[in-house]
Amino acid sequence: METKMVKKESVKLAGFTLKTKTKDGINFKAILKFWQKFMNDGRIENLHGESFPKNYADYRACFPQNPERRL
């Protein structure tokens, strides 16, 4: 597998957030639990039912809380 950087047009994201920490892998458990709940509690249907997304795709986006901090 090779990494490839591709420049694309900007997109706007709408959705739900989850703050977690990477210490001891707690983020993996928290993210899995979040997605299981999100997919089964009606939130995904509500989000897709909103009038603003004419064309939508589901993205799983992770952003560092402090983008200046390097691992």
Structure in words:
By secondary structure, this protein is mostly helical. The chain has a domain at 24-65. Helix content is 31%, strand content 0%. It has 2 helices and no strands. The chain has helices at 26-40, 43-49. The two termini are 23 Å apart. The relative contact order is 0.15. The mean pLDDT is 80.
Summarize the structure.
This protein has 71 residues and is mainly alpha-helical. It has helices spanning 26-40, 43-49. It is built from two helices and no strands.
Which range does the strand content fall in?
A: under 5%
Mean pLDDT: 80
Helix content: 25-40%
Biggest β-sheet: count, sense, barrel? none
Spans where pLDDT lies below 50 across 5 or more residues: none
Number of strands: 0
Radius of gyration: 15 Å
Distance between the termini: 23 Å
Question: What is the SS-derived class?
Answer: mainly alpha
Features:
71 residues; extended
Helix and strand layout, with pairings?
Elements: H1 26-40, H2 43-49
